[in-house]
Write a structure and sequence with these properties.
alpha+beta; 24% helix; Thiol Ester Dehydrase, Chain A; 147 residues; 4 helices; elongated
Length: 147
């Protein structure tokens, strides 16, 4: 992946690696401890009938699961420093992510400014499914040394 640098222009878009949401991923993430009797725990992320009883058409991935995909993209763009100083803001989860969906994280540079010894980047971020529907939207801020 190409990292953000001092020459990264406004408008440039970065794309993460597509990831398929499988039953195994849903269960491993939301099913509770593997050694728990009756695993996976029945909830709207692991059990179709439970999800339907809550008004959903099917099970849905935990939003934090694909927020993690976005975090992976941010670390790829800004390095581990993003974990200390990067921020995601105004995150909205706007569409159900179901078993079998393929998700791709995207980030577009909206602005950049030099502040002292660093360049701060403001990004528009989204996660889209295989139909190009946004399932997560928001913004992020990250910085790199101005050098």
């Amino acid at each position: 992946m190409v990292r953000i640098n001092k020459d990264t222009p406004i408008g440039l878009e970065f794309t993460g690696k597509p990831k398929k949401m499988s039953w195994e991923r849903l269960w491993a993430f939301s099913g509770g401890p593997f050694n728990q009797q009756g695993w996976p725990k029945k909830n709207l992320h692991t059990d179709t009938e439970f999800a339907k009883s809550m008004g959903l058409p099917t099970v849905g991935a935990s939003a934090t699961q694909y927020l993690g995909h976005m975090t992976e993209l941010m670390i790829g763009l800004f390095g581990e420093e993003w974990l200390r100083h990067g921020k995601m803001r105004k995150i909205k989860f706007i569409k159900l992510v179901a078993d079998g969906d393929v998700l791709t994280s995207k980030a577009r540079v909206v602005s950049k400014k030099t502040e002292g010894l660093k360049i701060e980047y403001d990004l528009s971020i989204s996660v889209k499914n295989q139909n190009n529907d946004e399932v997560l939207i928001g913004s992020a801020i990250g910085s790199i040394p101005a050098e």
